[in-house]
């Protein structure tokens, strides 16, 4: 467990509790809150919860807040940064969906050979796959349920 020595509200040395106090025997869970307070120490928080769509976690000089020491700060993203995240997610979804569309077309390519008669239903299915990029939900298509029902993808005949 990482802890910090405190001098009032000033954060001092940060290290593993066994390194800072090599001659003290601790329980396997490390020092508890009472021990930390009695020895002018505080737990160092490793992770801050944040909403990655609207915030980011930046490194920061260690600071004391609410009896714990933090080495990161949560910063709100600008509108441009949020838009870039949405664009990147949409680009990734589009790439993934195009690969899925190509896979589904490849499954039925043998039906498009000149010596095979393709059914009207299969021709409609293949055309729907080629037109999937014009779907209202593109690129955030809903995949069908496990039984193949629902979703935004056309159903193979």
Sheet having the most strands: 5 strands, mixed
The protein's oligomeric status is single chain
**Secondary-structure class:** alpha+beta
Count of β-strands: 5
- Strand order, largest beta sheet: 2-1-3-5-4
Amount of helix: 25-40%
| Overall pLDDT | 91
Element order: H for helix, E for strand: EEHHEEEHH
Q: Low-confidence stretches at least 5 residues in length (pLDDT < 50)?
A: none
What gross morphology would you assign?
elongated
Q: Measured on Cα atoms, how large is the radius of gyration?
A: 28 Å
The helix count comes to 4
What features would you describe in this structure?
This protein is α+β, with helices and mostly antiparallel strands and 157 residues long. The protein is 32% helix and 24% strand. The chain contains four helices and five strands, in the order ββααβββαα. It has helices at residues 17-20, 33-38, 79-107, 120-130, and strands at 2-7, 10-16, 41-45, 55-65, 68-76. The longest helix is centred in the middle third of the chain and has 29 residues, at 79-107. It starts with a strand and ends in a 27-residue tail after the last helix.
Keyword list:
157 residues; 4 helices; alpha+beta; 5-stranded mixed sheet
Detail the topology: elements first, then pairings:
Layout: E1 2-7, E2 10-16, H1 17-20, H2 33-38, E3 41-45, E4 55-65, E5 68-76, H3 79-107, H4 120-130
Parallel strand pairs: 3-5
Antiparallel strand pairs: 1-2, 1-3, 4-5
């Amino acid at each position: 467990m990482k802890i910090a020595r405190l001098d009032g509200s000033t954060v001092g040395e940060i290290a593993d509790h066994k390194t800072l106090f090599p001659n003290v025997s601790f329980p396997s869970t490390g020092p508890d809150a009472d021990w930390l307070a009695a020895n002018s120490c505080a737990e160092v928080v490793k992770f801050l919860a944040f909403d990655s769509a609207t915030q980011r976690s930046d490194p920061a000089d260690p600071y004391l807040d609410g009896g714990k020491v933090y080495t990161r700060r949560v910063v709100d993203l600008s509108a441009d940064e949020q838009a870039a995240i949405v664009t990147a997610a949409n680009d990734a979804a589009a790439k993934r969906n195009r690969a899925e569309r190509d896979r589904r077309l490849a499954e039925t390519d043998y039906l498009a050979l000149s010596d095979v008669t393709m059914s009207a239903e299969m021709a409609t299915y293949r055309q729907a796959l080629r037109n999937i990029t014009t779907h209202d939900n593109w690129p955030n298509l809903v995949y069908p349920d496990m039984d193949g029902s629902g979703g935004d993808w056309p159903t193979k005949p």
